[in-house]
Design brief:
heterodimer, A: 487 residues, alpha+beta, 4-stranded mixed β-sheet, 16 helices, 42% helix, B: 319 residues, alpha/beta, 5-stranded parallel β-sheet, two-stranded antiparallel ribbon, 14% strand, globular, disordered C terminus
Chain lengths: 487, 319
């Protein structure tokens, strides 16, 4: 068997390796995505005071520490049986919405943007944020930087630090909002909304009006029919901070709606010896291997699957963008993995609108931001939508609130099986006998996973570290005939 | 004249150091103008073989974040050391091991058992564990080895400078980069740069009184007075044992310091420094009472060594 390796995969958060095995004829026999690391947060959080976990778990991922901070704080609320005051919840969601607006922008412009804006087969040296800026112009490039800075500023105002925020504690937050800070956030949030609209316009011009890209998005190279998961509010609309978890089947019919605390009834994780990362699946359907369709428990938890699982968006401009996306792509659900980029921009607009909505809420400057816990701590689950998927934190403590047991299912991990399948599919479609697996083709295989915005830093929470992705191509005898690596 | 070469790499880290570099905002364009970027895996498509092809010492500045946990991290650390004129341990993990260094209190086997066998959502009746080599239908797959413990960068190769923090604050990052870009003199090799020369307390806006502590509390148990020193209020705050430089961010928003900027100048072990700070503020001379008061501190090792366990002299360090 001939194999092709891409190592490390680049423009993702964390490390990964792809191995592609070829047959004697030169077609793809199988492709494997390996995550070569584990950090062990589940173990080394044992013995820590549980109120410290919102500050420890952030270090799972410096790209989305806000997600871990929130899931962990909500888990602590549950453990202490304490309900934060309404203003505290709004302050957390305000921070979280601004974070989402920035995180989705980082992915679109810095990580995925190079593929669409610069071109999937452009020279490697141009496929980066600087290449994107060269293409869209310095003015737009500066606007991207300014937008990210604004989002980070809101996180710093509310969370104390722009990377690894610290203010959420069991029962609320330690930092309220002054009138002046509120005014500043309102001004920034208006810009977030404008930037969200601008980004959708850019997507329209650069991607949707380019027939080649549209064919790529809608073609069979990047399409999978799997279950979709996402968090919805009481009206079934997308929410990032709180709600019920809804799963729809590949045809778009509701399969399950459950509270975070019941996640173990619905989810389980499969182990393979060739990767440090586990493979979650829907327990009631079962693990059937790396296959799609309604008989397989493989699901996705991505911006696209959140939109598939929900009935709509909670803000007007995002709702209009949502409608337009489904109209253009032929109705719900959409299974074209590359459409995830579009869904991400719809969510980015929602995040901006939601930031503005919360900042203008009269209660947001309330001083009632803490409920001091009085109950004996026990066990709890905290769940939010991380940008890269539904995030579950589950801890149990002793009566003094010292951690005994931790379980985590992290954003990207939800999508591990689906990402592996997308890579295999793209490899099979793009690598054929007689076709040289050049760097451009391998980048198009990487695009299959980049759509998920995978964060293997998060996923490898289980040991330290990260390393970018490698693809190894092996011939029928197992010899590595080609290695594409980036480190 | 060709531009100096810059490499940025991550080993056992979370990516927060990379985000902190982006947080220098528009000045990232100045960095792009001043340097030839030769490696930055999270943002650009360069490959390991591109770095291998460079001559020894041809990278002018390498910012290395993350600790060393796998054989692969170690290989990259050695490669980048040989290719770099200035190798900087960037951020708390490269400096002291950081939070992932807390894993050094456990064996690798304990970590594996928890993650792949005992955790609540794991379905693994066959007890399958990740293996360095796995035979699959098409051939064999390999995984890099996870080392027995996590080491700071200086535990593996010689480090020229250290920029502390989890993550280093953008203003400090820019100050360091600007110094290099403008070719200004750097302090003697081995120095901590991009930080202050005092303790976090010296930057803290809170009011300090003569400390007399009879009871320690955990920070979620009380609503702390916003003006007074947290340690005065009985909340364990690592400020006295932590180098200045972050701008006292956590304490300014009502949350105690956990020591991410590492020990202050002249201090080798952060926990030892904190223990002596605690000992000096307890309001009792009675050994039994002192012991009872100290016993109120939840998880002293995991708190005093929150970021520095892998660099400490207690169990796990460098083993």
């Amino acid at each position: 068997v001939k194999t092709i390796a891409i190592d490390p995969i680049t423009r993702l958060e964390g490390h990964g390796t792809i191995d592609i095995f070829l047959t004697d004829e030169g077609d793809v026999a199988e492709a494997y995505l390996q995550i070569p690391e584990l950090r062990g947060f589940e173990k080394f959080c044992e013995g820590r005071p549980v109120e410290e976990l919102p500050r420890i778990m952030t270090r799972i991922c410096g790209v989305c520490p806000e997600a871990h901070h929130m899931a962990s704080a909500k888990c602590c609320d549950a453990i202490y049986h304490v309900e934060p005051p309404p203003a505290a919840k709004k302050l957390r969601e305000l921070l979280y919405s601004a974070f989402f607006a920035g995180d989705h922008a980082t992915h679109f412009y810095a990580l995925a943007g190079p593929d669409f804006v610069v071109g999937p087969t452009a020279p490697a040296a141009e496929r980066n944020i600087l290449g994107v800026i060269a293409k869209v112009g310095l003015a737009t490039g500066k606007r991207v930087i300014q937008h990210r800075a604004g989002c980070q500023e809101v996180v710093k105002i509310l969370g104390g630090k722009a990377v690894h925020p610290v203010t959420s504690v069991p029962g609320g937050v330690t930092k309220g909002l002054t009138e002046a800070e509120r005014d500043r956030i309102v001004a920034l949030a208006r810009e977030f909304v404008e930037f969200g609209e601008l980004s959708l316009e850019l997507f329209d011009t650069l991607v949707l009006q380019n027939r080649e890209y549209l064919d790529l998005i809608l073609g069979d190279v990047y399409t999978h029919r799997v279950y979709s998961m996402g968090t919805v509010d009481s009206q079934g609309r997308v929410n990032f901070y709180d709600g019920a978890i809804r799963v729809v089947d590949p045809a778009g019919h509701e399969f399950a709606t459950f509270a975070a605390r019941d996640y173990l009834d619905h989810l389980a994780e499969h182990v393979e010896p060739w990767s440090y990362l586990k493979f979650p699946y829907l327990k009631k359907v079962g693990w059937k291997g790396f296959v799609d369709g309604p008989e397989s428990g493989v699901y996705q938890a991505t911006p696209l699957s959140r939109l598939n699982a929900a009935s709509g968006m909670a803000t007007p401009k995002a709702q209009a963008a949502y409608d337009r996306m489904y109209e253009t792509l032929g109705g719900k659900p959409v299974h074209a993995v590359l459409a995830t980029h579009w869904a991400r921009l719809v969510e980015m607009l929602y995040a901006g609108e939601r930031t503005l909505q919360l900042a203008e809420d009269p209660e947001i400057t309330s001083r009632e931001i803490r409920t001091v816990p009085t109950e004996t701590p026990t066990e709890g689950v905290g769940c939010v939508e991380a940008p890269r998927g539904t995030l579950y934190h589950h801890y149990a403590t002793d009566a003094k609130g010292m951690v005994r047991k931790v379980n985590l299912i992290v954003g990207t991990t939800n999508n591990h099986a689906a990402i592996a399948m997308s890579i295999r599919l793209a490899a099979r479609k793009l690598i054929r006998k007689g076709v040289e697996a050049n760097e451009g083709i391998l980048n198009m295989i990487e695009m299959a996973f980049r759509a998920y915005d995978p964060c293997f830093g998060c996923a490898s929470h289980s040991l330290p570290g990260q390393m970018p992705l490698e693809v190894r191509i092996r011939d029928a005898s197992g010899e590595v005939v080609q290695v594409l690596e980036r480190a | 004249m060709s531009k100096p070469k810059l490499a940025i790499y991550w080993a056992a880290s979370c990516g927060g150091c990379d985000i902190a570099i982006l947080d220098i905002e528009a000045r990232i364009l100045d960095v792009a103008a001043a340097f030839d970027l030769v490696l930055w895996p999270c943002a650009a498509d360069f490959k390991r073989k591109d770095v291998e092809a460079l001559g020894e010492g041809s990278i002018d500045l390498c910012l290395f974040n993350g600790g060393i946990r796998t054989s692969e991290h170690e290989a990259m650390a050695r490669l980048l050391r040989s290719r770099s004129k200035l190798l900087v341990a960037f951020g708390a993990c490269a400096h002291l091991g950081g939070i992932p260094g807390l894993a050094n209190a456990f064996t690798r086997e304990e970590l594996f058992a928890e993650v792949y066998r005992d955790s609540a959502s794991t379905d693994n009746p066959g007890g399958v564990l990740p293996a360095l080599r796995t035979a699959v239908a098409e051939g064999e797959l390999e995984l890099p080895e996870v080392c027995g413990a996590l080491r700071p960068l200086a535990g593996v190769v010689e480090v020229d400078y250290t920029v502390p923090g989890c993550p280093p604050q953008p203003a400090q990052i820019w100050a360091v980069l600007e110094t290099v870009i403008q070719g200004k003199p750097l302090p003697p090799r081995g120095a901590v740069i991009g930080a202050g020369e005092k303790t976090c307390c010296d930057e803290c806006p809170r009011r300090r009184e003569e400390k007399k502590i009879r009871r320690f509390v955990r920070h979620h148990e009380i609503v702390a007075d916003p003006e007074r020193c947290l340690l005065d209020q009985g909340i364990v705050c690592m400020g006295p044992a932590t180098r200045s430089g972050c701008g006292a961010l956590c304490v300014s928003v009502g949350v105690p310091c956990r020591g991410c900027y590492g020990p202050p100048p002249g201090t080798r072990d952060q926990a030892a420094k904190m223990i002596s700070a605690i000992a000096s503020v307890i309001d009792s001379q009675d050994p039994a009472e002192v012991e009872a008061i100290v016993a109120q501190i939840a998880d002293p090792v995991g708190t005093f060594h929150r970021f520095s366990l892998a660099a400490s002299m207690v169990k796990g360090a460098g083993s």
